[in-house]
Amino acid sequence: MLTGKDRARLRAMANGIDTIGQVGKDGINENLAAQMRDALAARQLVKYRVLENCPLSAREAAQELAELTGAEIVQVIGYRFVLYLADKEDPLI
Predict the structure, then answer these.
(1) What CATH superfamily classification does 4-84 receive?
(2) How far is CA 38 from CA 34, 53, 78, in A?
(3) Which of 10, 34, 40, 72 has its CA 20 to 30 A from that of 2?
């Protein structure tokens, strides 16, 4: 569970990273969840975007992907969201 300070630090780190993926008109499927797991394993902190034609809001998509991957939601702003999954051996925070 992230504290407020942890979230603030992760939000600051997320400002400097690019959006690496998007949730489109098909919403969330197993393929997208697998991509998210791989990205979280490689980077720990990922930023995704929800397209306008997606049936889910950014908050709903972040919530569902967090549940599927075991990640924590760092922030949701507009159409973008940031998720964090700590590496057991070398966590960012």
Answers:
(1) YhbY-like (3.30.110.60)
(2) 6, 25, 24
(3) 34
